[in-house]
Amino acid sequence: MKNDTTTTFLNFVLAALVILGVLFAILAMQRTREYRAITPLAMQANAKAMMVQSLVNDVSSYNAQVRSPEIARILQSLQPKTAAK
What's the rounded Cα separation, in Å, for the pair 4 and 11? Predict the structure, then answer.
């Protein structure tokens, strides 16, 4: 009888592991789909951020030549804020 109890227990453990494996596989597939959907949007946002940074660099170099206080004030407002310690 001890053998039947051990076999039953091990079968339940095996069934639980199989169910967990299927659950994890489904979650992995969902996250992969989400990642594939978000990747093009992230690439667009990154490209736009690079364009804006390029524009800021061009304006900064222009301001170095012309020295406009209005442009300097705008550029200063665009500088990243550092965290206060």
Answer: 10
Q: What does the CA dihedral 26, 32, 34, 40 come to, rounded to 10 degrees?
A: -170
Chain centroid to Cα 30, Å, comes to: 16
- As given in the structure block, the two tokens for residue 66 are 């012309």
Q: Is the distance from CB of 66 to CB of 74 less than 8 angstroms?
A: no
- Enumerate the domain spans of the chain: 2-77
Going 76 to 77 to 83 to 85, the CA torsion angle's sign is: positive
Structure confidence at residue 50 (pLDDT): 95
- Residue 22 tokens read as 């299927």
pLDDT along the chain (85 residues), means of 10: 85 98 98 97 96 93 91 86 65
Whole-model pTM: value is 0.60
For residue 18, what is the DSSP state?
Answer: H
Report how far residue 53's alpha carbon sits from residue 45's, in angstroms, rounded to the nearest whole number: 12
